Structures are given as C-alpha cells and as structure tokens.
C-alpha cells in the first residue's frame, strides 16, 4: 500500500459511509481507500455489508451518510450524474446478469454504442477483441443461456472491461460457479491484476484472496475491522474477530 | 386411435340427439337454410371486412397506448408520481366501465359536441371507445411483463451507465414484451369479436349485416354465417398464437410432469 500512497489521488476513497435498510444498519461509518492498480479483497461473514459496499460505490444504493470519491470527484453529491459515474466503473455480479435476449456480442456492445457513443463497427471490433481476450471468440453470436456458467461470467467480465473502466467491482463472481469452472474465471482476474487493473472484489475464496489481493479487508460490524496484506490478515490476524471468522471458513 | 374413436362416438351421439329432437325440422329451416346462407353471404362478408379493418387499426393504437400507460405506471421515483397516478386512474376507470357504455357515451355524445376538426362518424368514435377500453387491459398485461423482468437486469444495465430510459428501451421492454406476446394475442382475438360492438352505433359490420338480412324474412341463417366467418378468422389466429408461444419456449414447462 505504501508503494501507491505517494501523494497521488486514490482511485476510490470511502469516508464514514453509512447505509441502513430499515432498522438494520449495514455500514456504520466505513472508511476505505483504493489506489491505482491496487486489488482490494473484502472478506467477512454473510450480511457483513460486502455487497452493500460495492452497490453503494456503484450508486445502485444511495448512502445515508459519508462521502465516496472516485478519482477525487465526490460521487455521493446528489447533483452528480449517476449514469456518468457508473460509466467509469465496471461491475461483475454473482449471477452474471447477462441480457438473455441479446447475443453475446450485443451484450458487450450495448454500453459502448449507447453510453459511450462508439460507432457500431468500432464497438463490434472492440467487443471481438475482448471476447478473444477472455477466450470466447467463437461464442459471439451465441445466446447467454447456451453458455456454461464460467463462460457467462467471462462474457460478463468482457462486457464490463470493454468500456475501459477505471475501477472494477466484482461481487462474489465465482460463488455461483461449479468448482471446476471457478478456475477459468480466477485465471482471468489474475491476468487483469497483472495488467494493472484497479479492482475491489469480495469473495469466499480465501486461496484466491491470498493470490491476488494487495490488501485484504475484513468487514465486521459495518466497518473495516482489520486490513493489511494477505499474509498478515489471512495467516496472522491481529483481531480476535478475524481469527474466529477465518477459523470458521477454513473448517 | 382411442382418442379418434371416442371423439367420433361422442359427436355421433350429440348429432343423433339434436337431429331426432321434435323441433329439429323447424330449427333447420330457420337457422341452417343453405339457400339463405348463399344469399346473405356477400353482405355479411362485406361487414366482416369492416370488422377486420377496425381490428387492425385499433390493435396497433391499443398496443401503443397500452405500452405507454404501462411504462408510465412503472416509472420509479417521487417526481414521476403524477404519471403513475394518471396511468393508475386511467386503468381503474376504463377497466371498470362496461365497453358498451363507453361506446354509447362516445358514439352519441362526442359527435354532439360538434368539435371542429374531428370527424363525427360513428365508425371513428366507436373505434375510439374500443381503443380507450382495450388500452386499459393491455396496459396491465404489459405492466405484468415489465415487472416480471428481474431487478438484477436493471442493475446490470444501470451499472454499465445506461440511463433509466435506455435501460427500459434496450433491456427491460424487449424481454417484457416477449413474455406477454401470448397474452396480447389473446386480447387481439377478443378485440376482433368486440369490434362487432360498434354496430350499436349504426355502423354496418358483419353482425349488423346479418341482422339486416334476417329482418327480411325472419330466417336466422345469416347469423350462423357470421358466426362461422368469425370462427374461421379466430382459429388461424389462435394457431398463430400457439406457434408464437412455442417459439418463445413455452412448451408447457416440466415436460411430462
């Protein structure tokens, strides 16, 4: 982390973020900083707010209090154009959420053409390059339903990447996959990290967290309870809560 | 084989019962007179052509108005409250009012206003009444389709930076409309028959033409001719509906279960 902190504006910064659903306070003044090229992995029990945090960053949920800045721009300002903010991030969901009525290619070109106003031919070219990149060029005209879970998730990643996002948010992207399909998605994410993509992801795969994370954050009680390099947080946690959580996961 | 045999047997019993009934010769004379049928056929057919034209024009307008109402009713956010209120009130009103009543009010009331620039023909106002009434039903069908699209689809579209309108246009509506096509076809078949109701305003459609023919000699065969023609129109549409539904993958989910 110290490598990145040299005075430059972080890609993403959360300060005192609060979010409640009814009487349940999920985030209770959470702080988090993500620097350029950094991969931050969020771990924590179900309901600890990992997904809510990602949804808040993407403005799919409106925060109750606190500030989120993307490359220095306050995106929690109610006057901000949420669509323009979202266009700067890529999101990959647990259940892929591909559009079933569109072909794989059209899934990928939808945002470039409609949001980023890229000419159709150029968008198609970029989409094909992206499919090449995720290893599925032969599936361009297929429907999402005809693909395996792992293939669908790779298409979803391509759909997010084609817009050249400044930040990728990945929400439990391997949780819905059969164990033998998890590998193909994790390999892709590892390559992305090597290319310098800034990512925030939450996962239950501690082995994967260990491999890709620059920083692991353990969420508990609506705040980042403990954070640090994976070797420290996962292998030698300082906090009792973290230790108990990891013991349960490993058991 | 078994199904064919049982069908033939049952039909045979029914026909035998009808034909051997004491009033049969009289009924055959007044309802199934082939000579009268041939005589009335051209007039009834001409009336039916009007039904078809009304159905086609109204069908398109109903789809547009219904979809607009459904989109208005499902708009999110407090700013759009008046839109939702209007759409909800519209649907409540026109689903509650009997079609015949709307026909009378518009068909006889509106021309009496002598509004300049608007036609005063019964056909125009009768079609308006059909569009107003049917749009309320069709709007609810579209709304059901819109709400059946999983929220994760909206989340995915919005996360890509698509606006609310773009999300509706490119992600929600295409999926919603596909799902409700069989239900919409059902409403279209229904409209095709209800298009005959504008006859109450004095327009000569198939049923009205049959009535006129009947009034000449109290032979009811023209009604049977009109009925047969309507059924001939409906059956191909019903098969087409089935075909569309099958193409959508509604095979009757669950296979043999």
What's the layout of helices and strands?
The complex is a heterodimer of chains A (251) and B (257).
Chain A lengths: L11 E10 L2 E11 L4 E5 L6 H8 L7 E6 L2 E2 L7 H5 L2 E4 L11 H11 L5 H14 L15 H13 L5 E5 L7 H16 L4 E4 L3 H7 L2 E6 L2 E6 L1 H6 L4 H11 L1
Parallel strand pairs in A: 3-8, 3-9, 6-7, 7-8
Antiparallel strand pairs in A: 1-2, 1-4, 4-5, 9-10
Chain B lengths: L1 H18 L4 H8 L2 H41 L6 H16 L2 H14 L9 H27 L2 H9 L4 H31 L11 H12 L3 H27 L10
Question: How would you write the strand order of the largest sheet of chain A?
Answer: 6-7-8-3-9-10
Fraction in helix of chain A: 25-40%
- Radius of gyration of chain A, Cα only, in angstroms? 18 Å
User: What is the assigned CATH homologous superfamily of the largest domain in chain A?
Assistant: P-loop containing nucleotide triphosphate hydrolases
Structural class of chain B: mainly alpha
What is the CATH top level name of chain B?
A: Mainly Alpha
CATH superfamily of chain B: MetI-like
Any guess at the CATH architecture of the largest domain in chain A?
3-Layer(aba) Sandwich
Multimeric state of these chains?
A: heterodimer
* Percentage of β-strand residues of chain B: under 5%
Structural class of chain A: alpha/beta
Shape of chain A: globular
Element order of chain A: H for helix, E for strand:
EEEHEEHEHHHEHEHEEHH
